Amino acid sequence: MISQWYEIRLKKDLFRLAIVTLITVVFWVGMTTYKALNTSKVNVSVSRQIKSLTPSIDLDTMNDVAQRQIVPQEDWASIKLVAPEILVIPELNASQSATINSSTESAQLEQD
Hints:
2 strands; about 45% helix; mainly alpha
């Protein structure tokens, strides 16, 4: 008698658990699908580059461009080439040499 009652209650509990699990899985899959469809996979830098241009012309910007200072053309033929100066560096003679005296275990500077 107790085993039949326990078996009926266990079946009801497992059925409820299966329903709750099914609802959870359906909700989880639905939310993941929604997120995958609505999330952009384009980098921010790329999205800035592919941003559409507006067809209207800004007159203030056009006036600023028209009022820019114009740099005159340079006549490259008038530039004279100048040969670089050659620097002569005199040779230096070494007047001192350093030796190590191993008997006294100290370095001494000897003058020639």
